[in-house]
Design brief:
The structure is a single chain. The protein is an all-alpha fold. The chain has a single domain, classed as Orthogonal Bundle (Globin-like), CATH 1.10.490. It has 7 helices and no strands. The two termini are about 20 Å apart. InterPro entries: Globin-like_sf (IPR009050), Globin/Proto (IPR012292). Keywords: Plasmid.
C-alpha cells in the first residue's frame, strides 16, 4: 500500500504479546493517537465534524475494543465502521496518509518494536481496505488507483 516493499513480514500477535502488548497498551495508543488526531490540521476537522464531543469518549472506547479484537483476538467488538466512513464525503487520500503517518508516529513512540510493527501493518491493511471500499462505493476506477505514499510526521 505504501509503494515500498516490506523489509520483513509483520510480527505475529503472539510476538507482540510476549513483548508486552495488552489492553492497557492499546488504550494508551488509542488515547494518545486520537488526542493528537483530533487537533491535527488535516484530520482533526473530520473527527470534530463527525464525532461530536458528546460521543468522543464512546468513540474512543469503541476504537479500543476494535484494536483489542484485531490484535488480542478479543471477541467484544461488534461494530461496523465501514458505513460510517462511507458517509464522510470529504474523506480522501490525504486523510488516510495523515492518519497513517500520525499512527506510525504514535505507536513507534509508545510501543516496543515488534508491537509497533504489528500496529503499523494492521493500520496500513485497514486503511487500504477502507480506501478501496470507499472508492468502490463512489464508483471510482480502482484499476489505476496508485498506492498511498508514506507521509512523514510531523
Amino acid at each position: 500500500m505504501t509503494g515500498h516493499p516490506r523489509a520483513s513480514k509483520a510480527p505475529k500477535p503472539a510476538e507482540a504479546i510476549a513483548e508486552g502488548l495488552d489492553e492497557a497498551m492499546i488504550r494508551r495508543v488509542v488515547r494518545r493517537f486520537y488526542a493528537m488526531a483530533r487537533e491535527d490540521e488535516v484530520i482533526g476537522p473530520i473527527f470534530r465534524k463527525y464525532v461530536p464531543d458528546a460521543r468522543w469518549e464512546t468513540h474512543l472506547e469503541d476504537i479500543e475494543t476494535f484494536w483489542c479484537a484485531s490484535l488480542l483476538s478479543s471477541r467484544r467488538y461488534d461494530g461496523r465502521p465501514m458505513p460510517r466512513h462511507l458517509a464522510i464525503t470529504e474523506l480522501d487520500d490525504s486523510h488516510f496518509m495523515r492518519w497513517l503517518a500520525l499512527f506510525r508516529h504514535t505507536v513507534t513512540e509508545l510501543c516496543p518494536p515488534l508491537t509497533a510493527a504489528l500496529f503499523i501493518d494492521r493500520s496500513e491493511r485497514i486503511a487500504n481496505s477502507f480506501r478501496i471500499n470507499i472508492a468502490m462505493h463512489r464508483g471510482e476506477d480502482l484499476v489505476f488507483q496508485p498506492p498511498l505514499k508514506r507521509e512523514t510526521y510531523p
